[in-house]
Design brief:
Elements (H helix, E strand, L loop, with lengths): L1 H31 L2 H38 L13 H9 L2 H14 L4 H14 L3 H13 L6 H10 L1
Helix pairs in contact: 1-2, 3-4, 4-5, 5-6, 6-7
Length: 161
């Protein structure tokens, strides 16, 4: 963060410095009729503008970006992703168990009260990955949240675990 501010400050100092030199060279060259000083002033103007471009572009596009955000996110940005149980179910049907478990874990991270995600993740851990300890840990986590899991899932973990 500090490095960004330092970089911006240095760019502004150089940019304004070059614009000042450009003004000095261009006006002095114009008054004296020296074309090389006017051309040099134009070059310094372009160099100063290049140093300030990032900030100028940011300031110029900020209103447009705010308008787009207001159109597509009228209530502001989302705190958490939208719940999507279809993707991990599709991955399960395809036999892509690692990816399905990763998706169920993402769901549990953002939607910790989603019973179906707990049940499917427990089933995957216990039956497919043969990790009853991790499955039992998920069952305990669901019970701490006072969620009602399917008894078959709980019994299968308790029976082998």
């Amino acid at each position: 963060m500090l490095r960004d501010h330092q970089g911006t400050l240095i760019r502004w100092l150089f940019g304004i410095g070059f614009l000042g030199l450009a003004y000095h060279f261009a006006t002095e060259g114009y008054e004296s009729g020296n074309l090389s000083r006017v051309v040099g002033g134009a070059g310094l103007f372009l160099l100063g503008f290049a140093f300030l471009w990032k900030t100028i572009f940011h300031l110029a596009t900020r209103p447009l970006l705010r308008m787009v955000d207001a159109l597509f996110f009228p209530g502001g940005k989302l705190d958490k992703p939208v719940l999507n149980l279809k993707l991990p179910a599709y991955l399960l049907n395809q036999g892509r168990y690692d990816e399905a478990l990763a998706e169920y874990r993402k769901i549990l991270k953002h939607h910790p009260d989603e019973v179906e995600a707990y049940e499917k993740a427990i089933w995957l851990l216990h039956e497919i990955f043969e990790n009853p300890a991790a499955a039992a840990k998920l069952v305990r986590r669901a019970k701490k949240r006072h969620l009602t899991l399917d008894e078959r899932v709980v019994r299968s973990v308790g029976g082998r675990g």
